Amino acid sequence: MADVNITVDGRKLTAPAGTLLIEACKSVGIEVPSFCYYPGLSLQGACRMCLVEIAKMPKLQTACTTVIQEGMAVTTASDTVHQARKAMLEFVLQNHPLDCPVCDAGGECELQDMTFSYGASESKLIDFKNHKDEEQWSPVVFFDRPRCILCYRCVRVCGEGMDVWALGIQNRGALSLIAPNQDDHLECEECGMCIDICPVGALTSGAYRYKTRPWEMNHVSTVCLHCADGCKTTLGVRRQGSGNQIVRGDNRDKSGINGDFLCIKGRYAFDFIEHPDRLKQPLVRKNGTLTPASWEEALELVALRFREARDTDGGASMGVIGSSRTTNEENYLLQKFARLVLRTNNIDHHRTADFPAFVNALSGRAHATASMRDVLSAPAVLLIGNDPTYQHPLLAWQIRTNVRLHGARLYVVNSWPIKLTRQAKEFLQIPEGAEDKAAAFLAGDDSAADALLTSKTTREKLAGFREKLQGEQNLVVIFGSELRGQELAALVRAAARGAKYICLGDHANSRGAADMGLYPDLLPGYLPLSEAARFGEPWKSVPQQPGMDLEAMVAAGKERKLRTLYVVGSNPVARYAIDPFALAETFVVVEDLFLTETADLAEVVLPAACAYEKSGSFTNTCGDLQLLRKAGDCEGVKPDLEIIVRIAELMGFDIQQLAPLDPSGMRADFGESRGVQSGEVDQQAIWNRRQGYEPRVSPFNPFAVLKEIQRVVPGYNVGQLELLSGNDVHTATAGRAPGKTEADRFILPSHENLFTSGTLGRYSDVLNRVIEARLRLPNEKEKEIAAD
Amino acid sequence: MNVFSGLAALAKGMAVTFKEMLSPTIVENYPDGPGPLRGAMFQERYRGVHVLQRDENGLEKCVACFLCAAACPSNCIYIEAADNTAEHRISGAERYAQVYNIDYNRCIFCGYCVEACPTDAITHGHGFEVATLNASSLVYRKEQMLAPRPALQGQNAVFSISGEEQLKAEREHGGVGRWIE
After folding, report:
1. Would you call B49 an interface residue with chain A, using a CB distance cutoff of 8 Å?
2. Residue A539 burial by CB count (10 A; 0-12/13-18/19+): exposed, middle or buried?
3. CATH 1.10.760.10 fits B46-173, yes or no
4. The pTM is what?
5. Is A101 close to B81, i.e. CB distance below 8 A?
6. CATH topology of domain A355-504
7. A98 inside 8 A of chain B by CB
């Protein structure tokens, strides 16, 4: 668009036509205050704080609703404008209680800031303020009516942004008030966006309520550990007792891939960390019961039994199960541990999507995967299967926002009229379980059409749908675990012309676990076992024949051929409904946060740190790599990385071949700051280096492992500076995954919804309270059942 | 001339000395004086160990706003806030300080906390003998700093008891106040 020239406060500036005056001013650093204006939401013009003088216009104009015009002369700093702002503030403060000391927003309240900058701190009013008691609208949303300044941000973000429309306005004029959709409570997705966006303390969070004040906290940016979308969350931590306690989750700087968005799990479900059932001491089975033991005792026992099994029966008798919730570094090190130390390929994890087939289908095509940011800007999106509103909330937000702001065309293929069909341009309802047929049909196989016909879907509709899709340029194709093997490959091969793909896994690091080679037949980066040598000298000894997958391991257990099973952060017994007696003769070691069904069978249980308590990196389901930073502390637990290295060392393995050492030593501190896991720079190391002393290096350094991953894993060679500054970097799928054409039958979707998150969700107090409150609702249609 | 001016200066100096020698002693007789303060005397403005005040209903004035902790230059105030409920009401506002600790190892008695307090809940008292042989006992808890509850709290002193009863009750409870819980 052509640029428009305007004059603001005597200085000329230029901005694209159609820009709002308030945005134009902001772009050159002139602040025009406002409450109701929020970028990306519809215009309201309710608060009248942004009044400015425009030449030739008789009255003051609201900058947030005025589009700039050529030659416009604007004054934002005259006496009239100041007077107007002050008067508006006085008006807002008329019935606003001055209870800042007890208000949760105190310290990060926009009204406080504005009053501080623009005056009106003394009221002319001598009447008593009209007090109303605080209302609780849901387990996590509290509403304090007198504090509300009626900016309608919450109403708009809930309706336009979340497409929930749970908040509305009652009455008109001076009597207006924000009201929930059910008389006295909310029935919604409990995302907490209304609380986040509230400029004052009218909407406050039930989870953070009165816990602390904003200036008392340190803020740590990390990545949410729940679903696979990889939202950036900022955790507010406060020093307490022996370490840092996480007291709040939000997305404070809005700089992540999620922009403004965060769902209930990212915002509130960190409280499992402090659950009383959290394991804080290793447990060793003695006389049939798990009894607390010291770390030394437990680790030595594990190392002894592992070494015995390896040296007598060989690596083939040992199994390793990794996790889709541990970091890339830990997953990489775990498969390295299995392959180099245990000398076995018997390694698997809970698979939730067919990533190898995906990578195989994409091999040889550059830039063929879409990042989460691409979904926000793509001109058209095709969604096959899955229900992102409940399983991938960020993805749903990106799609909705794209449709709303950029007019993207959304095509939905699903067996169920999912919520996103409200944004869809075309919706193709297919019989249940026919997603693979739909993919085949869209890829050009007309014979698949028969299986897709329903009362709502005719042959003409199918043909029209395919034709429209073929006309789309730069399409983003999103599909879940319904598509596997050949159908997936056919779909990927069919659509061309700049199409990009996203394959949806279910857990925070499902993609990372797959990328890091937690497969019995694939190395990191989906490389075949025959290419082990490219990882370095020690890898030449890696066995060439594929190892056992999970099913085979259980079968071997039944036949008493599986001597040991090392389970890291996973609960296969509950997930796959494994017969507990199958592992009766196996020495099972479990690393987990809680005593899960699998841990209950174990000989040794090691308490692990969760992803909020360590640093490392996560790859979200789109392939966006982000760094985790340590936020909280938990006494007695160790990060999985450290446990793996310690076991290897006790087994007599030269740990320098396992855990890379970073000679820069910059992040290898041994406790001077908040530890190597905090991701902070080691000041002592800098001093050492300046004095010419030898740097001290730690074998438990996730950044050193990340460097190795970047060096050896195809696609991960991305800029470290971007990562370190807290940004997301898209990894390329450069692997090959040969022979991965048949559908992977071990894929088990986790079927999480907005309020469940596997084991972690079970131990989250907030999530449980929300689920209970929803079950109590009389007109609750969809029952939320906590999966494991 | 030098000798005379020297002598004059000497005389002037000694005059002050002799005058002070003959005037009454104003040094306080601490710690051998009478009364609970053992002879110590304070200006009203003296900044001693903090006192957490109560309002006229006997509720704590502190609403756990953390402003004192924010103002504190030596970072010695630690607070944990909690919700007031109808059954369990501690302060007048919506929340109260569940834990309120001042670490007197670190406190420099600057009075910034008193200045910062929006509800006049924290004040400097005149407590001063804080020295101890055990540093950990210098972390004072809320209970140690809280002003005593007014006598007869919960009863209406004006309407429900006569002056005599009140006097009797005060005598029984030591005349100052008592813990009800």
Report:
1. no
2. middle
3. no
4. 0.89
5. no
6. Dimethylsulfoxide Reductase; domain 2 (3.40.228)
7. no
